[in-house]
Specification:
The protein is α/β, with parallel strands linked by helices. The protein has eight helices and nine strands.
């Protein structure tokens, strides 16, 4: 199953941990070569180690998604080193976690926090899509999955910058899907809920900003947190031939929180 991934190439941002690592390892285990994109080599090294342990091949590419030239260079390096670009998982992001960025209503969000979140989550997504699409449209197409959030589908208090940025990710995904469908590129977006194994969730719990028991008992219909394997499952499906007739889809992976 999923033989189509063998000897293909995945470019994954935010791949130094969490969802990006899980997807990188999953694709490596299916024979895909992986460009592990992260700002620092130290974060990528463990992902590369796990990809290779799963039987795959991986390289590190330095990438700060908020910097257009950095993204352009990272994708160029991926193609030059691995020979092609078939799939992209645009996953790098940041948001309110009570540690690095406080939970705050719009009136209390600082301009610097607003800029940081928008530049990473939305402008960074634009940078990645721009250079991935430029390559894929000239080379037979491809499949892209972006990471938004349930917070991009349902606005809640305290996520003054995060919610709007993730709603923008859904919008830019559907823009790309519409513009490049006839060029053979499918573009979809996942909307995770609270997910174990991610830095955002772990920092939120450590700061006391997220009460997991409350979420499980009162917010998540399925009554459980997601995990990074759930994300890898969703991304694999959206990249695979099983979803060959799906593009522009915003897929909730959130235990039913979208309802």
């Amino acid at each position: 199953m999923f033989e189509e991934f063998k000897d293909k190439v995945l470019f994954a941002t935010g791949a130094g941990s969490g969802m990006g690592r899980a997807v990188s390892v999953r694709f490596g285990s299916m024979g895909c070569k992986v460009a592990v994109a992260a700002r620092k080599l130290e974060k990528a090294e463990e992902t590369i180690k796990q990809v290779k342990a799963a039987g795959g091949d991986a390289i590190f590419v330095s990438c700060d998604v908020a910097d257009e030239q950095s993204v352009k260079n990272a994708i160029s390096q991926t193609v030059e080193t691995l020979g092609r670009l078939d799939y992209a998982f645009n996953n790098a992001g940041c948001g309110a976690d009570g540690v690095n960025i406080p939970f705050a209503p719009l009136t209390e969000v600082t301009e610097s926090d607003w800029i940081k979140v928008i530049n990473t989550n939305l402008t960074g997504m634009f940078h990645c899509l721009k250079y991935e699409l430029l390559y894929m449209t000239k080379n037979g197409g491809g499949a892209i999955v972006n990471t938004a959030s349930i917070g991009g589908l349902k606005m809640v208090p305290g996520f003054g910058a995060y919610g709007p940025s993730k709603a923008g990710v859904i919008a830019i995904t559907q823009t790309a899907a519409t513009e490049f469908a006839k060029e053979g590129v499918r573009v979809n977006v996942i909307c995770p809920g609270p997910t174990e194994g991610t830095n955002l969730m772990e920092d939120s719990k450590a700061s006391g900003a997220q009460d997991t028991e409350f979420l499980i008992n009162n917010v998540i219909p399925l009554g459980k947190l997601g995990n990074t394997d759930n994300i890898a499952d969703a991304v694999t499906f959206l990249m695979s031939d099983m979803s060959a007739n799906i593009t522009g889809c915003a897929l909730p992976v959130c235990g039913g929180m979208q309802m």
